[in-house]
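Hello forum,

I keep getting stuck at the same step: I have a sequence, I want structure tokens, and every attempt I make locally crashes halfway through. Rather than fight my setup again tonight, could one of you with a working pipeline run this one for me? It's a single chain of 328 residues.
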Amino acid sequence: MRQRSHNGLVILAAALSAAVVLGCWPAAAEPIATHPFSEALVTNQTGDSLSIVSLADMKSVAEIAISGNPAGIAMSPDRKYAFITSPESKELVVFDADTRQVAKRFNVGEGPLGVAAHPSNGLVYVADWYVHKISVVDPLAGKVVAQIAVGDSPSGLAVTPDGKSLLSADRDSDAVSIIDTATNARVKSIPVGKRPFGITIDAEGRRAYTANVASDDVSIIDIATGTVVGTVPVGHRPYAVALARGRAFVTNQYGSSLSVFDLDSLAPVKTIEIGDHPEGIMADATGANVYVACWFDNVLMRIDTDKLTVTGEAAVGDGPRAFGLFLR
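Reply #2:
Ran it on my machine without issues. Output:
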């Protein structure tokens, strides 16, 4: 029987896989949104694997053993590497997306979950659920270079497009932390809804959207002022948010649905019925589609953002989470 945990960390025994030597990539790379995405890299937490899905035909083309209950994921700016958190083995896994091999893995604390990559300086940020800190990681060296104290049980992470600020959804503090990436200093804690989990920043770096699991709503933050400028009711147990074509798309875990609302008026647009227990969600580079991992159905679903209908699905591994940025 599959386990579903309240805090997002599923604890299962797992063995570590072998690692190969990691090559290097440029610290500054062309922005990820300038080229269309061709693949989805879906972390399968209870399956201890990573599914690779071709977006052209929505077919799973590979499933790679990862171990450690992989959950969170982020891509390097050049899309060559995926950074994957494995909570059970307490590691960050660096995955070479071109060769489809694990390149490196190393300890990053006690409960790594959310992960985000800086757009230009080569660093990666990992939220540690248990020690209430964010680890600043040099993935080439395979080590933690700094730690930042935040609120309780940090979950989702996101970096502004200019790389100046890191935002952390501090779930058990009902708050979002803003961190100055130049100094690794926490500069503000912003009260939001109850139990914020996933967090997404818009392309302009102006607003952040956090899905609040326990209050069934989304808080909208003006990053410059550090204030909540709106709250939108959504479905039951919202998990994460994607932004596309002037709309927000929110996965409702217990509602088996997506809530869609307008970013300008904040008015509801539609509720879309999808697979069982939707979790990770991300929009493609054009905003024409969003992709959703459905935990209990073991599928990745594609939703047309204009028609607001499901247009495809791909079978993936067991317990897909895809928590973070998983398209390349």
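The radius of gyration is 17 Å. If your local run keeps crashing, start a new thread with the error log.
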